[in-house]
Automatic annotation (TrEMBL):
Residues 10-73 form the DUF6884 domain. It comes from the Archaea. Pfam families: DUF6884. The lineage of its organism: Archaea, Candidatus Nanohalarchaeota, Candidatus Nanohalobia, Candidatus Nanohalobiales, Candidatus Nanohalobiaceae. This is DUF6884 domain-containing protein. InterPro entries: DUF6884.
Length: 131
């Protein structure tokens, strides 16, 4: 089976409110919704790379939070991201991102390193829109 996992990073813009709601609803980002729709159309799995929680399914309920992934956070989140990849066992990870620079760089480094350690094929796809 050729299982591909489509991933994009989280969004600073989030819907406010107490309690937990699915990540796909919490993140207020057209980029995230578009990558999810692409994965759904292709009947492929989709996950979001969170600066706080690591790699999570889009339906995972999460509370409101504000945590930008920084380079020093990579080591802390690496085990969680690897655990998710071990569980899903994708043959290939397709990471959707705008140009890898600035605040997006640690997210890219985390998912790329996780794929390398788990010996999972990795593809970066540059997208033109970012929210």
């Amino acid at each position: 089976m050729n299982m591909r996992l489509h991933i994009t990073y989280c969004s600073k813009d989030k819907k406010t409110g107490k309690g937990e709601i699915p990540a796909i609803e919490r993140y207020d980002s057209s980029r995230i919704r578009e990558v999810k729709e692409l994965a759904d159309r292709k009947e492929k799995d989709f996950a979001i790379l969170s600066g706080k929680y690591g790699l999570i399914p889009s339906e995972k309920p999460i509370p409101e939070y504000d945590k930008l992934l920084r380079k020093e956070d990579i080591e802390r989140l690496l085990p969680e991201v690897k655990k998710f990849l071990k569980m899903k066992k994708p043959e290939k990870v397709i990471y959707h991102t705008k140009k890898v620079e600035g605040k997006r760089k640690p997210y890219f480094e985390l998912i790329k390193e996780s794929c390398k350690v788990e010996e999972t094929d990795f593809e970066k796809r540059i997208i033109s829109q970012d929210t």
